Amino acid sequence: MLAAAAVLTAILPAFHGVVPNSPGHLGSLLESFLPWSGLAIMVLLGLSLLRRSSLALVALLLPVTAWTYLFGGLLLPETKSGAHDLVVVQHNAGDENTDPAGTARSLADAGPDLIALEELVPAALPVYERALAPRYPYRAVEGTVGLWSKHPLTDVDKVDIRPGEITEPWSRGLRAVVHAQHREIAVYVAHLPSVRIRSTGLASSWRDESAGLLGKAIAADELRTAILLGDFNSTLDDRGLNPLTSQMNVPRRGFAFSFPAAFPVARIDHVMARSATVGHLRTLPATGSDHLPVIARITLDQAR
After folding, report:
1. DSSP assignment string, 255-289
2. Parallel, antiparallel, or unpaired for β 85-92 and 114-118?
3. pLDDT in tens, 164-207
4. From CA 56, how far away is CA 65, in angstroms rounded?
5. What distance in Å separates the CA atoms of residue 249 and residue 244, rounded to the nearest whole number?
C-alpha cells in the first residue's frame, strides 16, 4: 500500500494536466497546491522507514524525481545581476490595510524601479501617492490598480479584463509604457477575480475568463518587451493561467509564497515577462495587507 501511494504521489504531479477540469475545476484545484505534494512524500518516507519497507523506499524515488523536476529549480540560489536589469515589486496592498503610509515606505525602501499595487481603495490612494512621490515621480492608476515608477511613463490606458457577468463598474487592469534601459517596455498591472473552494470544487470561471482577456491584450501588444505584475488569485501551475504563462517567462527561482500573509501557503502574486528573464523571486516583510509583497529582478533581453 505504501508503494502504491508513492506511485500515485508521483503520477498526480507529473501528469496533472490530464486530470479533467470538469466538474468543479478539479484540475485547477489540484494544480493550485502541487508544491505541497512534497509533504506527502515526507509522510510516506516516515511510514516506509517505520515499516522498514524496502519496496516502498524504492517506490519513493518516483515522487522525489517528479517533485524535483517540477520544483527543484525554485530552490536554486539567485543568479548574478546584469547591466540590463529592472527590479520590480508586486503587492496586493489590501483594501482593509490600516497603514498605507507604512506599506508605501516599506515597499520603497526595497529600492525597486517599479511598484505595482492592487486593491487601491479611494481613501488610501492619496496616502500612497504622497508617500511614494518623492522616490517615484511617475505613476499610473486605473480603478483599483496602480503603477509607480522611477522612470517616465507614457501611453497609460485601462485594460478591460472584466468578466461578462459582472455588470457593475469594475476596473482592475492597466497598461503603461515605461521608458527605461534605452527602450520602451509595456508594463501591465492586473488583479484577476477571486476564486472560491466550494463543495462542488473550485469556482474559478470569472478568473479564467479574465485571464483570457488579459492574455489577448498582451499577445496583441506591439512592443517587443512586456512585464506583467499582479495578483492572479492562482498559482502558476493552475491551467487557468495558461493564456498568460504560455506566452510569458515566469520565475524559475524562489517559492515566495505570498498568501495569506499570516501563514503563506501559495504564491498568487506574480511577476512575468516577455523578451526578458525573471530572476529569483522572494517575499518582502509583511505590511498591513493580507498578502506579502514579492520582489524580483528582471533581466531584459538585448534589444534588436
Report:
1. ----BSTTS--B--EEEEEESEEEEEEEEPPP-SS
2. parallel
3. 999 998 999 999 999 998 999 999 999 999 987 766 667 889 99
4. 15
5. 9
- pLDDT beyond 70 at 79: no
Angle between helices 37-51 and 2-14 (to 10 degrees): 160
- 139 three-state secondary structure: strand
pLDDT attached to residue 21:
72
Beta partners for residue 295, in sequence order: 89, 282
Q: State residue 68 phi and psi, 5-degree precision.
A: -65, -40
pTM of the model: 0.86
The residues pairing with 149 across neighbouring beta strands, listed in sequence order, are 114, 138
Q: Judge whether 217 and 187 are in contact, CB under 8 Å.
A: no
Q: Which residue has the cell 485594460?
A: 159
Backbone angles phi, psi at 244, to 5 degrees: -100, -50
Cβ atoms 275, 299 nearer than 8 A: no
Determine the Cα angle at 71 with ends 70 and 77, to 5°. 140
- Distance, in Å, from the CA atom of 267 to the CA atom of 231, rounded to the nearest integer, reads 9
Instruction: Report the Cα–Cα distance between both ends of the chain, in Å, rounded.
Output: 57
How is residue 76 written as a grid cell? 536554486
State how far the Cα of 71 lies from the Cα of 81, in Å rounded to an integer.
22
